[in-house]
């Protein structure tokens, strides 16, 4: 919500007026001066401005009382310090606190839905930082979202496999809840979120494989539909499709025993398990690898479905604290923890091999992919503890 700064007001005053942490106001406005001048536009995170009609007999005073709003916030939004000058108006602007999640969880979560949610989140919580880390085969931007200013850098990515698109809506729901709790000084499961903003920088890539996700949900409406249908063995049903649009499995693309995984996987492009002709040949996998090298994360989680299991460790190259972390993840979620599996060339494998830091693959839910949306609430509640532990550990 944008307001116009009045003569004599301070950033601290606006922080107190709307009950929003001062640091979030500063970061929402890229303000390093901690000062403002009259006439400047100022973003107040966590609010939207709504126009309402005044009923007969209503006044600024009665609206403030009925809606539990600070009277001066109404003066501010309506360009006056005089209540009597407003009570004859037919319309009034009021601040509305955004407190509920609006991320779509009742329909398949495609690329357009993700972008719509990112636009809305960044409008309401302008202290989010976003970056395009690369582009898919079809040129769709792959977005990274960052929250926080802390020295500890943790990362989560989702929807690397096309028919696991539910993971994108799960992590976006957590992001929405986290932003709301930070802004409005709320707790999540009894934990105060405010300290994490200064302690942790959270990086999220919610949809690594946007082309594949749209293919899995909408079918072959791409330009070269004939080719991708051939890769799908002639079928127009892409619900089981895991790969990117070229038929290459992005989680078999990382240079961590890639040759061994290549021998065990499919020999040609298709819906799943083909690792390509060489590691990091696909722009989506390369973008994620480049981001990881550049940001030097302290810990990463790759979200997949299904199995309610957390995979950790890779050929003994994970640090000792990985076991402690995964045990806490398991405790707060009820998920099983499994150290080594005969599967290689995944993002988590490469991260542990390359950086010798804790990495985890989180398999949400149970059943067959794509998991039904009727599982969303249960999946979110079980995984929420892991996302929180990712911040506090």
TrEMBL record:
Q: Which InterPro entries match?
A: CARBOXYPEPT_ZN_1, ENP1_M14_CPD, LysM, LysM_dom_sf, Peptidase_M14
Positions of the LysM domain: 1-44
Active-site residue list: 363
Locate the transmembrane regions by residue number: none
Keyword terms, alphabetized: Hydrolase, Metal-binding, Metalloprotease, Protease, Zinc
Q: Where is the Peptidase M14 domain?
A: 107-391
List every stretch annotated Disordered. Answer: 259-279
Q: Which GO terms describe its biological process?
A: proteolysis
Give an example GO molecular function.
Answer: metallocarboxypeptidase activity
Q: Which GO terms describe its cellular component?
A: extracellular space
Cofactor entry: Zn(2+)
State the similarity comment: Belongs to the peptidase M14 family.
Protein known as: LysM peptidoglycan-binding domain-containing protein
Native source species: Terrilactibacillus tamarindi
């Amino acid at each position: 919500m944008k307001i116009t700064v009045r003569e004599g007001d301070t950033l601290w005053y606006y922080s107190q007026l709307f009950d929003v942490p001062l640091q979030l106001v500063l970061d929402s406005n890229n303000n390093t001066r901690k000062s403002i001048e009259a006439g400047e536009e100022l973003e107040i995170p966590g609010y939207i401005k709504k126009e309402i009609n005044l009923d007969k007999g209503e006044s600024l005073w009665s609206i403030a009382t009925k809606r539990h709003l600070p009277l001066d916030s109404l003066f501010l939004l309506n360009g006056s310090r005089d209540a009597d000058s407003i009570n004859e108006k037919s319309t009034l602007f009021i601040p509305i606190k955004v407190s509920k999640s609006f991320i779509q969880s009742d329909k398949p979560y495609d690329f357009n839905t993700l972008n719509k949610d990112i636009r809305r989140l960044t409008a309401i919580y302008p202290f989010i930082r976003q970056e395009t880390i690369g582009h898919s085969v079809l040129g769709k931007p792959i977005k990274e979202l960052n929250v926080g200013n802390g020295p500890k850098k943790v990362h989560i990515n989702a929807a690397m496999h096309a028919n696991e698109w539910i993971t994108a809506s799960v992590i976006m729901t957590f992001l929405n809840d986290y932003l709301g709790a930070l802004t409005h000084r709320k707790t999540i499961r009894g934990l105060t979120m405010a300290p994490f903003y200064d302690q942790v920088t959270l990086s999220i890539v919610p949809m690594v494989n946007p082309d594949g996700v749209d293919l899995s949900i909408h079918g072959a409406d791409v330009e070269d539909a004939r080719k991708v249908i051939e890769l799908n063995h002639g079928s127009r049903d892409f619900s089981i499709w895991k790969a990117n649009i070229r038929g290459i499995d992005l989680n078999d693309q990382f240079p961590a025993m890639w040759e061994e995984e290549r021998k065990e996987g499919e020999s040609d492009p298709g819906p799943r398990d083909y690792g390509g002709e060489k590691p990091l040949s696909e722009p989506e996998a390369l973008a994620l690898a480049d981001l990881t090298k550049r940001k030097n994360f302290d810990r990463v989680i790759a979200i997949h479905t299904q199995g309610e299991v957390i995979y950790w460790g890779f050929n003994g190259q994970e640090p000792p604290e990985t076991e402690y972390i995964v045990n806490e993840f398991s405790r707060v979620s009820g998920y099983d923890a499994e150290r080594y599996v005969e599967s290689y060339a995944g993002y988590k494998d490469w991260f542990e091999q390359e950086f010798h830091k804790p990495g985890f693959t989180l398999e949400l839910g149970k059943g067959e992919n794509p998991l039904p949306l009727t599982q969303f609430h249960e999946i979110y509640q079980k995984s929420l503890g892991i996302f929180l532990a990712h911040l506090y550990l």
